[in-house]
Amino acid sequence: MDIPDSIKNRIRNAALATLAFAAFLGCAAVSNPDGGAYDETPPRVIGSNPDMESTDFKGKRITIDFNEFIKLENAAEKVIISPPQQQQPEIKVSGKKIQVDLFDSLKTNTTYTIDFSDGIVDNNEGNPLGNFCFRFSTGPSIDTLEVSGYVLNATDLEPVKGITVGLHSDLSDSAFTTKPFDRVSRTDGDGYFVIRGLAPGRYRVYAVQDMDQTFTYSQRSEKIAWMDSVIIPSSEMRIRQDTIKRNNDTDTILSVPYTRFMPDDITLLAFQPTPVIQYMSNYDRSTHEKFTLTFALPLDSMPAIKGLNFDETDAYVVQHTARYDSIVFWMKDSAVYYNDTLRLSVSFLASDTTGMLVPFTDTINLIPKKSREAILRDEARRAENDAKELDRQIKRLERANDSIGLLKLMEPKKVFLRANLTNGSHSVDKQITLTFTEPVTFLSDTAIHLHKKMDSLWVEEPFQIEQDTLDILKYFIYAEWRPEETFRITIDSASVQGLYGLHNDHIVSTLKFNPLNMYSTLTVHVQNPRPSFVALLFDSGGKIVKTARLENGAADFFLLNPGTYYVGLLDDFNGNGVWDTGDYEEQRQPEQVYYLNYKFQLKQDWYHETEPWNINEIPRFRQKPEELIKQKSNKTTIDIRRKNIEREEKKAAQTAKEREQRAERREKRRTLFRK
């Protein structure tokens, strides 16, 4: 049936009207509000009572007003009043106001500071008002001098956040341990501190992780730092150049006077002192077969063990660290170690109440984490489940008429002594290790074979195997390893016997060493080197991967895999090859660590040689490469800025999408009207 032209026109007109109305709605639609940009600006002080830097203050209450609603984060940790208060003040936050009530008697003619660090943040986005300090005086004048600097971990130059930094006008060594600081501050996320309100004079600078809030160094569990030299605060007028951009994009350079307070580059290297009290810090029996004794300090020799419910004579195999501070005892006799309780006495030199080492005997009961009865129940349960699974497999193989599979299934399963032999792709400077899960009572050298692949043949090679002097579970295999060559290590079955009667399975491992052109070499030159310098090579995660002693002011790092590396330096005073901590009682600073602030991107078959490195050219607080610093600062502000960038990108994408949709609607409308 043909549709009349009049009806066709009516349908066409109705469609056009509908489309036009839809287009109108599309053009007139308003997007949902996105709430606007995230606030990046910190709160601002608009008033206070008393006024900032007021004098002759006699009250006990301070109020500070802000331009927006605020929060005070971790007030007990971040807010610090100087001079220190014996009775902690009460700090309240209400809306746009902070109220501080002081309970201690205020000293006469003294400048007081209330340091909020980065604790004050706005209520919406958490933007911090960094390093805010309120200042007033109980006398006729304000002490205006200040000093500043950084506190870093002595081991790795990592910024130390939240540590108390203080000054003493008493220059004696005993002041740090007997007197509260004259003036104090705390470090921020960068390890940065400012101590304000100083009077002219001479001071010693200290830092302490003040756990008991005494403002002194009172216990060796506290991290500490100090400067050997005396500081003299001073100030001078300086001029800095500020650039102001006008609307017409022209720059105006202004000379702005300011006061520079010095010293402003104090660097304190914080460390954890070695405990001086010797005691048995822990004992543990992780399994029936072995127990571990741990001591607070290294022992000069093995402790004397006396079994109280067993005969300790030839009862165990000992595994210990180099310094005898952790000792593992592997029990030999099952009749002994199957006891759920082992009672023994441990005799060693321990500290008395005066700190002197005296003979001491401790009696302990060693109970495994799981009783023998519980172990037997678990074994019975596993045996029952294994039997059910075996029955299911037998029935499956019988249905399949698989006689060979049935024979293999019925073969008794053997339990072997577990061993791990390093294999795969190797560098020739890596040690080849053979590690067992329990002490070895027998190992046949003749059952271990080393072959080198020459063309298609395997040729026997000489080698040596030696037990690690520190770890009785580990063995080193030494041979003339060469790049680009392939070796095979074979260990015959039942050639190694463990302490508990198990033997090894047949072991075959192929070692393929990489060619030299797959590696890089890095040579580091150091200006004015000392014999005690040890160069450190870090990977991209900050882990030490190689060390090298300097020879003629240079350290060579060979056979480096391509990748990112960083370089450091240890001033190894005692020559033991490891970093050693300090001691305040002995006035001994920790061993010094330096970083070369440079990232090395090494590729295959590269040789890179540095320019002579002046370790003191850059201040210590700027040496560590930013990529290696784990303590990041200004996280809130950075996150907010990232959110704003993401918001603008999303908004731009949405605008582009809407523009594209409008263009499509216009094109459809024009096409329809043309028809």
Could you walk me through the main structural features you see in this protein, from its secondary elements to its overall organization?
- By secondary structure, this protein is an alpha+beta fold.
- The chain has six domains: 1-30 and 634-675; 45-235, Sandwich (Immunoglobulin-like); 280-369, Immunoglobulin-like, CATH 2.60.40; 373-410; 419-514, Immunoglobulin-like (Sandwich); 519-626, Immunoglobulins (Immunoglobulin-like, Sandwich).
- 17% of the residues lie in helices and 37% in strands.
- It has seven helices and 43 strands.
- It has a five-stranded mixed beta sheet, with no helix packed on it.
- Helix 1 (5-28) runs antiparallel to helix 7 and helix 5 runs antiparallel to helix 6 (403-410).
- The model is unreliable at 14-33 (pLDDT under 50).
Distance between the termini: 23 Å
**Into which percent range does the helicity of residues fall?**
10-25%
What is the level-2 CATH architecture name of the largest domain?
Sandwich
Largest sheet properties: 5 strands, mixed
Oligomer: single chain
**Low-pLDDT sequence parts:** 14-33
* Number of strand elements: 43
Provide key terms for this protein.
single chain, 675 residues, alpha+beta, Immunoglobulin-like, five-stranded mixed sheet, four-stranded antiparallel sheet, 43 strands, extended
Summary, kept brief:
By secondary structure, the chain is α+β, with helices and mostly antiparallel strands. Helix content is 17%, strand content 37%. The longest helix is centred in the last third of the chain and has 40 residues, at 635-674.
